[in-house]
Amino acid sequence: MSDLLTGQHDVSVTRGTLGSRVALGVGIAVVVALIFAPAVAGDSATNNLTQFLILLIMAIGWNLVAGYGGMVSIGHQAFIGFASYAVLDLSIHGVLAWYAVPMAIVLAGLISIPVSWLAFRLRGGYFAIGTWVIAQVFQLVIAQQSNLGGGAGASLNDLNNLNPINRDNVTYWFALGLTVLSLGVTALLLRSRVGMALVAVRDEEFSAAATGVNVVRTKRLVFILSAAICGGAGALLCLSNLEVQPNSAFSIQYSAFMIFMVLVGGIGSFEGPIIGAIIFFVLQQSLASYGAWYLVILGGFAIIVTLWLPRGIWGAIDPHHRRSLVPLRHRIDYDDIE
Amino acid sequence: MIWTNAVIQGLLLGGLYAIFACGLSLMFGVMRLVNLAHGDLGVLGAYFAIILVEHLGGNPLWTFAAVIPVAALVGYLLQRFLLDHALNGGELSPILVTFGLSIIIENLLQQTFGANDQSLNIGALSYQSWKIASDIYVGRLNVIIFVVAVLVIVALQLFLSRTPAGRALRATADNRRAAALSGIDPKRTRAMATAIALATVAVGGLFLAMRSSFAPTSGSADLLFAFEAVIIGGLGNLWGTLVGGLVLGVAQTVGSQINPADGILIGDLVFLAVLAFRPQGLIASRSVAVR
Using N-to-C axis directions, what is the helix angle for B2-31 and B186-211, rounded to 10°? Predict the structure, then answer.
């Protein structure tokens, strides 16, 4: 190490690695394959893939706010349900459901701004319950809107005259597009100056503030982005279920699912939500017949992973951040040392 | 007159919320841990009472004597074997662990007892009432709950301010390291705080079960009400928590009077208004063990 001090060294700072370039190639190949999947997979498999992608989008959104923002929200179902209802409401007002999806995402992002004004007054565990209360307010208010079906909910009739298979395929492509978009936005955000500020804030808020990071603005930006991403998942839920009902659209279970996926996969890593969503989806499909037991198992897993595998499966695969498949970090290579 | 009645009933309801809330704020004060399974643990106590009454019979009132010590013991063990580990795992870990615990309890109860509403039938006490004005009646049980709520808060306050154990709790709340340096065993202190919190929330759970009905998912609602009471009253003192519970109770019953479906929503809006305009709570904080 003395070389480092005397300046006799050749240090290079890189981001991409061989692994990350391979991963990018594989990722592109997977996405291209997924684009053509409906042609091979058949309708029910396509619908399953859509459900999986919706879960993945939720996990990406929640990982952003909790894993990178350090804010454990258990109220993000507010944005899921809000966007579901936004699609419904827009389609009632004559907007074609496909166009309503991007609008609902923007609206979910916008509504999260006043939510953040309130929620950011609370910290830690109280922030968590505070967001939960806010989600409850969303649900109670929407359940009273009789034009949206009140407590019983309403159907999305806009797409009824389409061929169901075409409709399901388009919904699937929407889900795939939103997944890629969410992953891309996350990667770009984390590579940017804001991303570095964010990780600094998460790891040590006071020090970050002392080095000139605008802590509140950085956190708010992440909160809004994650709300918009979860809103995307909600908008897709409306398209794929073709109905919205307040109790299920604002269900606290979405928070449980997001927490499970992100924790198991690896909180605060780019790869974590993807791994977590795959595991969760498989578990959900295979344990669905066990009723409430499957949620008991999810809760147990959440505790075990938090206590004994705090960085999840990806953290176990890549304990020293060497294999990162997505070049988010700066790596320092000492060429002439060793 | 209906408004006076709504306010009186709200005050009585608020007492129940204060019972739920004081344990939540005690635990947060002592170890900065927000127990997201707090409400579920109270509901768990109520189901325990149901089992006891089913097997042993008698008026459910006697189950207080059995459920409270068991709850305290569960609290002690919970802290020692689960929450202490969670506290070592960084900032996010207690939130995630207690949320996991909440999911486990709710779904285990659902699997064991079904999703239906249950209640503890305490006979005549559940419908007897006192007439306090020409058309205002107050349920005897509701008055008892209110009195117990005030007694619990007073007792907790006296315990914290007058006893060596209470001093240990306050010292740990103020400065954990300094308290440990002066010979206070932090593990024991934390376990004591959780034991007290669970004992009080069990009282709340039993009263809830006697007063109305409850279901496996009632715990979440109770957690949210308890939390709202804490924030409305202001972090940092037990009287604030009592006031917060009363304000929330009145907001809900007056809200229900305006529109039967609106009670909870009006309570939430009062909470959000306090958060927006008086985030320190209605009663400003004095540093004690509940923060």
Answer: 160
3 state SS of B287: coil
Helices (H), A156-311: 164-191, 193-203, 205-210, 215-241, 246-249, 253-265, 272-287, 292-308
B148-164 as b/e: b if 16+ CB within 10 A = bbeebbeebbeebeeee
Chain A residue numbers touching B23 (CB-CB < 8 A)? none
Instruction: Give the number of other CB atoms < 10 A from CB of residue A271.
Output: 20
CA distance B291 to B287: 7
Q: List, for residues B217-263, the tens digit of each pLDDT value.
A: 999 999 999 999 999 998 878 899 999 999 999 999 999 999 888 89
Contact B264 A263 (CB under 8 A): no
What number does CATH give the domain B2-277?
1.10.3470
Shortest Cα–Cα distance, B92 to chain A (Å): 7
CB within 8 Å: A302 and B264: no
* DSSP-assigned states of every residue in B226-268: HHHHHHHH-TT-HHHHHHHHHHHHHHHHHHHHH-GGGHHHHHH
Question: What pTM value is reported for the model?
Answer: 0.89
Angstrom distance (rounded) from CA A303 to CA A292:
17
In whole angstroms, give the CA distance from residue A288 to residue A301. Answer: 16
DSSP B36: T
Which helix (H) or strand (E) segment is A134 a member of? helix A124-142
What residue spans define the domains of chain A? 45-251
Interface touch B103/A256, C-beta < 8 Å: yes
Interface of A with B in 148-187 (CB under 8 A): none
Q: What is the SS3 assignment for B131? A: strand
- Here the tokens at position A49 are 């893939």
Cβ pair B96, A72 in contact under 8 A: yes
ipTM reported for the complex surpasses 0.85: yes
**Please, are residues B99 and A127 in contact by the beta-carbon 8 Å criterion?**
no
Here the tokens at position B132 are 């306090």
Minimal CA–CA distance to A63: which of A317, A275, A278, A267? Answer: A267
Phi, psi of A42 (to 5 degrees): 85, 165
How many angstroms separate the CA atoms of A157 and A223, rounded? 32
Residues A285-327 have pLDDT tens digits of 888 788 788 889 889 988 999 999 888 888 888 777 666 666 6
